[in-house]
Amino acid sequence: MKKSRQLLSIVIVFFWASEYCHVPYFTPYLNMLGFSVTAIGIMVGTYGFTQMIVRIPLGIFTDVSGKYKAVVVMGTVFTTVSSFGLIFAESMWFVMFCRFLAGIAASTWISFTVLYSAYYQAEEGVQAMANISAFNNGGKLLAFVLGTITANFWGYRVPLIMSFLTGLVAIAFAVGLKTIPIRREPMQISHIVGVFKNPAVLLPSFFAILMQMVLHGTVFSFTSTIAENLGATKLQIGINTSLFTVIQVIAAGWVGRILVKKIGTTKSVMLGFACMAAACVMEAYAPNIWVLFVAQVICGIGNLLLFSVLAALAIRYVPQENQSTAMGLFQALYGIGMTIGPVMVGNIASASSYQTAYLVFAVISALSVPLAAVSLPWMKRKQERVHG
Description:
Elements: H1 2-20, H2 23-32, H3 37-65, H4 68-88, H5 92-107, H6 109-118, H7 125-154, H8 158-174, H9 189-196, H10 199-217, H11 223-229, H12 234-284, H13 289-316, H14 323-351, H15 354-386
Helix pairs in contact: 1-4, 1-7, 1-8, 3-5, 3-14, 4-5, 4-6, 4-8, 7-8, 7-12, 10-13, 10-14, 10-15, 11-12, 12-13, 12-15, 13-14, 14-15
C-alpha cells in the first residue's frame, strides 16, 4: 500500500507537469503559428469545455465500475498523446482535438483523489488531501521550471516536448499502481437532481464559474501574450506564470489557517474577487513586465482564497453520501468559466484590444464583491434554517 501511495505521488507530480509545461507559452506559440486572437480563444477554451461535459459522466462510470486505476492510467495517456499531437499541430481543428484530449485527462482528476485517499486509513483523510494538493502544486511548479528553461533556450515548441516526456514518466509509474477495492456509493440520478436543486452548491459554483472565467481568460492564456507584447523574454514569461502558483504554495498555510478563520468565508470571497479585479486592472495598464509580476502574485492570492473557500462551501451543507456528487458537479460547472473566459478575451481583443478585455474582467470581478456580500450570508441563513 505504501509503495502504491509513493508511486501515485510521483504520477500526480508528472501528470500535472505534463498538463502545464507548455501553458505559459501556449498562446504565444499559437500566435507564432499565425492563428487569430479569436481562434486562439476558442482553442484554449476547448480544454474547459471538455471538462464541463466529461467530468460528470466519467465520474459516474468510475463510481459504477470501480476502475479508478484504469482511469488514472487513461488520464496519463491522454495528456501525453495531447502534448505529442500539439508538437506537430498546424490546423485549428487538430489543436482543438489535442486540447480536447487534455481536457479529458484533467477530468480524470477525481479518480486520482479517490484512489490516493484509498491508500490511507479513513482517519488519515485530511492528511491525504493535504498531500495530494501539495503534489498537485509541485507538478505545476516542475512544469513551469521545465517549460521556462527549455523555452528560454530553444523556443516555444520545446515545452510541448517536455509535456510529452513528463507524460511518459507519469504513464510508466501509473501502470505499477496496485488496484484495490474501493467501497463508494455510485452516483445516482436522484443525488444529481437533489444537488442541482441545492442553492448551497449552485451559489459557490456560480462564483467558481466567474473565478475560472477570469483565470482562464487571463493567467492561463492571454497574459503571456501581453507579457510578450511588453518585450518580456521567454524566461520572464515563464517566471510571470509561475509566480501565480508559487505564491499559492507559499501562502497556503497562512490563508487557510489564519486569514480565512479570522475574516470568515464571505469576506474571504469578497477579498478574493477584489484581488482579481485589481490584478486585471494592473495587467490592462501594465507599462512593463514588473507590474505583471506583481499582478500575478495578487491574482494568485485571490485564487487561493476563492478556490479554497468556494470548494469547501460547495459541500458544507450537503449530506456526506452526496458530497462526491456535489464536488463533481461543482467542478463540471466551473468548466463553463474555463470555456468562455478565453473565448471572451479572444473576441473582445479582436474587436477592440487586450486592455478592453481585461477591464471587462476587472468589472466582472469587482461586481462579484457586493454580490458575494449579499448572497453568501443569505445562503448561510437559509441552510441553517433547513438544517436546524
